[in-house]
């Protein structure tokens, strides 16, 4: 009986560490992608803003409003 209990405990511990490892790796990967995507989003917004400003300066109606 004790052998089965030991096997069960070992399997339980291994399984728990396995689950914890998967969760940690998912969190790390998710955090890594967020870390990359946030600057990209900011840069793309900045580029879009510049594009809009250029379009507005070319458009005569909007350039009147700007003055």
Flag low-confidence runs. none
Distance between the amino and carboxyl termini: 88 Å
SS-derived structural category = mainly alpha
Radius of gyration: 28 Å
Residue-averaged pLDDT, rounded?
Answer: 80
What is the total domain count? 1
Shape: rod-shaped
Q: What share of the residues lie within helices?
A: over 70%
Tell me about the biggest sheet?
A: none
Number of helices: 2
Percent of residues in β-strands: under 5%
Overall number of strands:
0
Q: Helix and strand string, N-terminal first? A: HH
Description:
It is a single chain. The chain is built from two helices and no strands. It is rod-shaped, with a radius of gyration of 28 Å. It has helices spanning 2-58, 60-66. It starts with a helix and ends with a helix. The model has no long low-confidence stretch (mean pLDDT 80).
Q: What order do the helices and strands come in, and which of them pair?
A:
Blueprint: H1 2-58, H2 60-66
Which key terms come to mind for this protein?
67 residues; mainly alpha; 2 helices; 0% strand; rod-shaped
Concise structural overview:
The chain is mainly alpha-helical.
């Amino acid at each position: 009986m004790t052998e089965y209990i030991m096997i069960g405990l070992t399997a339980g511990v291994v399984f728990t560490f396995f689950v914890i490892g998967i969760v940690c790796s998912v969190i790390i990967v998710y955090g890594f992608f967020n870390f990359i995507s946030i600057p990209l989003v900011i840069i793309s917004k900045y580029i879009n803003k510049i594009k809009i400003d250029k379009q507005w300066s070319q458009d005569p109606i909007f350039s009147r409003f700007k003055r």
